[in-house]
# Entry
Amino acid sequence: MADFLQILITAIAVGSLYALIALGYTMVYGILKFINFAHSDIFVLGAWTSLTASVCVITWLKLDTQQPPLWLAPVVLLCAMVVCGGVAFLVERLAYKPLRKSARLNVLITAIGVSLLLQNVGQLPGFTAAEKDGRSLATVPFGPSPSRMPSLLPDTSLISVPFPSGDPTIPAASVQVNLVDVFIFVSAMVLMFGLQHLVYRTKLGAAMRAVSFNTETASLMGVPVDRVMSFTFVTGAVLAAAAGFLYALKYPGLNQPAHEIWVLLGLKAFVAAVVGGIGNVRGAVLGGFLIALIEFMGMYLFSKYLDPLMGTNMGTNLRDVYVFSVLIVVLLVKPSGLLGTPVREKV
Amino acid sequence: MSALTDLIPAHRPSLAQSLFAGVVVPSLCAIGVGTLMQFGVGPVLGDYWTSVGVQVGIAVMLAVSLNIVNGFTGQFSIGHAGFFAIGAYIGAGVSYYGALLIWNDASAMAHGAPLVWNNSKSWLFGAGEWLMIGGAILGACVAAAFGYIVGLPSLRLRGDYLAIVTLGFGEIVRVLLQQTRPQVFDGAELREMSAGELVIPPLGGATGFSSIPKYANLWWVWLFVAVVVFFAYRVKVSSTGRALLSIREDEIAARAMGVNITKYKVRAFVLAAALAGIAGALYAHSGNVLQPRDAGFQRSFDCIIFVVLGGLGSISGAALAAVALSIMTEALRGPEPILENWIALLILTAVISIVAAILRAVGNRGWRITLLMAVTPLSILLLGLASKFFTDATGINLADYRMVVYALLLIVVMLVRPNGLFGLTEIWEYFGPERAKKPPTTPPTASQAAAAAPTEGSRP
Amino acid sequence: MSEFLLDVREIGISFGGLKACQQLTLQVPARGLHGLIGPNGAGKTTAFNLITGVYQTQTGSVSLDGVHVHHLAPHQIAKAGMSRTFQNIRLFGDLSVLDNVRLACHLRGTHTLIGTLFRTPMFVAQERAIRERALKMLDVFDLADLADEQARSLPYGNQRRLEICRALATEPKVLLLDEPAAGMNPSEKVALAATIRQIRDRFNLAILLIEHDMGLVMDICEHITVLDHGTPIAAGAPREVQNNPKVQEAYLGEPGAVL
Ligand SMILES: Nc1ncnc2c1ncn2[C@@H]1O[C@H](COP(=O)(O)OP(=O)(O)OP(=O)(O)O)[C@@H](O)[C@H]1O
Ligand SMILES: [Mg+2]
# Structure
C-alpha cells in the first residue's frame, strides 16, 4: 500500500510535467493545425538551459553548491523561459511561417527537420561557459555527454506518513511527500491557471480562439493573425521551458540532447494531448495526469504481478509501451480524444 | 460509350504472355543485376567498397519502400526502421537458430554462400541461404502484419497521427528488443529451452544479436534491390499507384472519384513495411551485429532524408539519394578509403561529364541531369577531403554531426523545393529529344486569366 | 421505391449554430436536368456535400436509383453511381491529364496487390481497358492532345472541362456540377450549355447543376430549386421560379424587383 501511494505521488508530479508539455502541443495544434515535432526539443532546451544557467550562476558568483540560495530557482526558470521563447520565436519565423500556405506534409517534414536540428545543435561540442580548476562545468551548446543539474531546492520531505504493514515481520514503510514534488505540482498548477486565464479571460486569448476557429475570418475581423500565431507558439515554448526546468529539478541527471529518452518523453506528452483531445486546453491537462497515472500504474502492476510470474524484470522498462498502447486504443475508440470534438474539413 | 467492364475481355493477354512479361523477364533482370554487381562490379571494388555496396543496396531498398508511403501516398511514416528491425531480427532468428538446430553450427562457411567462398556443398546456393530467404519472407510477413496493426487506426485519421504513431512504434520496437533474452550459442541448450522460456525469445537483448551467418553479398542484396524497385515501379504505374497518388494530391477529390482512401493508405503502408522487412532480413545477414537501436529514430530518419531529398514519389530519385548520401556518410566516417580512390572518383566524374557533353551534342535534354550526376562523385571526394582536414585539425569526427547538416538540408529542401529534387519525375523521364519551345498558343482571354490566377498553387 | 433516380428528402446539417442546409428535398428523374440556385452562402455546395457523402446528413435520406445511400462513405456513393465536380476545381494537379481520367475509371475495376505486382492477365487487361476508355473520354472533351500534360498546367477552361470529363469517367447515373460556368466568358458559357445537354443525351444520365448565371440555368434546366439561408424557398419550372416573389426577394432584398 505504501509503495502504491508513493508511486501515485510521483505520478502526479510527472503528470504535471506532461500536462505542461502537452499544453504546448495542443495550443500550437489548435492554432497552426500541425503537430510541432520540435516542441519536445524546446522542452529539452529548457532542461539543459536550466542546468547550464544554474551551474554558471553558481560558479560565477561562487555560491554554495550544496545549498544554493532560494532566489536561484526563479532566476534559472526565467532564463530557461527567455531562451526557449526566443528560440521558438526564431523557429516560427524562419521555418514555419514561410510554409503557412504549404501542404501539410511539407510542414510536418520541416517540423521534424527543426526537431533534429535543435537536438543535434544542442549536443555539439560547445564553448565553455563555466569552469572550475581548469575543468569545464558547462558548455554552450551543451555537448554530447550527460551532465548533472545542481540541486536548487533543499532535499527535504514535507510530509512523511508511516504505514504500518499488517505483518509484524516486515518493517513499517512510510509515504513521503517531497518538496520537489509539491513544488512541481504547485508551479504547474499556477502556470496552467495562468494559461486558462489568458485564453478565456483576456482579449489576446479571444484573438487566439478566433484564429483557432477560423483563421481567415479572424483576419478579416482585424485580428493580427501572424502576431497571434507567434505569440501562441512562444507561449507554448515558455510552458515547455518551465516543464524542462521542473524536470531537471526532479531528475537532475540529464542525458545529452539527442538521446532517445527525450524523444520518448516528448512522445508521451503528445499522447497526453491526443488522449485529452488535441486542440483542447483542459484536455491536455487531463491527458497529462492520466498518461502519467497509466504509465506509473503500469510499471507498478507489471513489476508486482507479471514479472514474478514470468521470471523477468522488465515492468519498469516497458513504461513507454503502456502509454503507447493507450494511444492506439484511443485512436481506435475515440480519435478526437476525451474532451475533443471531431473536426470537419471544409470542402 | 461502353462500360469499362465490357472493354476488359478484348484486352486479355494469354497466360503465357503475361507470365513472360510479368514474371520471367523481371526475374531475369533481377538476377542479371545481382550477377553484374557480384561478378562485374564487386571484383573492381575490392573488399571495403564491396561491403559499402551491400549497405548502399539496403539503403536503396529502404528509401524505395518508404517512398511508397511518404512519396506516393503523401502520408508520413517516421518509424520505418521499426519494420526494418522486425525483418532483421526475424530473418536473423530464422537462419541463426535454424542453422543451430539443424547443423549445430551457424557459420556461413559450412552451409551456404558459395558465391563468396567457392567451397560450395551444393550447386549455386547452400541450404543456409534458403534459410535466409525463408527468414526474409517470414520477416516481410510479420513486418506487414505489424504495419497493418499500426496503420489501420492511424491511417483512418488525419495524416499527422501516422507520423506520431510510427515514431512511437519504432521506439517501442526498440524497447521491446532490449527486453529479449540473451542469445543462445549452443544448439543443445536451445533444444532444452521450454516453450514458456521462449515466450520472450533469445534475441540478444541490449547486447545485440551477433554471429549471424553472412550470406548477404552483393548478389543477393542487389537482386532484391531490383525486385523492390520493380515492385515499387509497378505499383506507381498501375491503378493502385494512381489511387495512392490521388490521395496525396487531394483526399476529398479522391474519395469523390471512388477511391477507398483508408484501404489504399493501409495497403501502401503494409507493402512498404513488408519491403522494409526484406531489407532488414538482408541487413541481418550482411555481417552486422543487430542492435535494438536499429529500430530507432536515427535510422528511420536516414530513410526519410533519402526520400525527401530524392523526391517524394520518384523511385529513381530516392534511390539515387540513398546511394549518394550513404557514400557521403561513409566519406565522413572514415575518409581514407575515399581519398585512396580519388583517381577513380575523378575518372567517374570525367566520364559522366563526357556523357553529358555527348548528350548535349546530340540534342538530348538529359544532359542537364547527367551533369548533375557528374557532380556527385566529385562532391563525395571533396567531402572526404574536407572531413579529413577537419578531423586532423580538430580531432572531431564529422560523421557524428552529420545530423546537423541533414536536418538543415531537410528544412531548406522543404522551403525551396517542397517535392524534393526530382518530385514525382523518374530520372529517365529527363532524357529524350530536346523539346521544341512550344509556340505560344492562343493567348487566354482576360476572364480566363483572371479566373485562373487564384487557382494557381492554391492546392490545399 | 420512387420513380426518381435521385431522391433527396429533407436532408440537413448545421455547423455549430449555423444551419447551413435544412429540410432540403429535391427529386431528379432519369435524364432530368435540374438546377439548384441561391445567393452566395445559401448552402448549395453544402447540399452537394451532403448528397455525395462528404458530410453526413443529420436528417432525412438520400436515395439513388431506389437505394438509400446517405449512410455510405463518399467512395461508396461514387460507386453507386454519383459523381461530381467541385466549385474550386479539385484536379490531381501533379498527375497527367490522362492519369486524372484513368484514376476515375478505377472504381469500375478490381485491383489486387498481387495482380499489380505480378501483372496477371486480368490486371493487364484491365489496365489496357482503362487506358482505352480514358483516351476515348478525353477525345469526347477534345482533351486527347493534352493527355500527357500535367493537369496543373492546363488553362482554366480546360481544367473545368477535364473535371467534368473525370467525373463522367466514373460511369455515373447522376452527375452533380458545382458552378461549372464560374470564370467563363459569355461565349464559353454558351458552349458549356451545349456541352451539358450533350452529356446528358450521350451518357444518358441525370444532372443536378449549381449555377449563378441565371441565363444559363433558365436556359437548360427543366426544374429549379432555390435555396436561401440554408432552406429551400421555391421549386418548380424556370418560369415559375423566376416570377416567385420570395426568390426575387432573396436575390435582391425586396419583392417585385426584376430578376
Ligand atoms: N465545414 C463547414 N464548417 C462550418 N461552416 C461551413 C462549412 N461548410 C460550409 N459552411 C458555411 O455554410 C454556409 C453555406 O456554405 P455553402 O458553401 O454551401 O454556400 P454556397 O451556396 O455554395 O455559396 P457560394 O455560392 O458562395 O458557393 C456558409 O455560411 C459557409 O460558411
Ligand atoms: Mg458553393
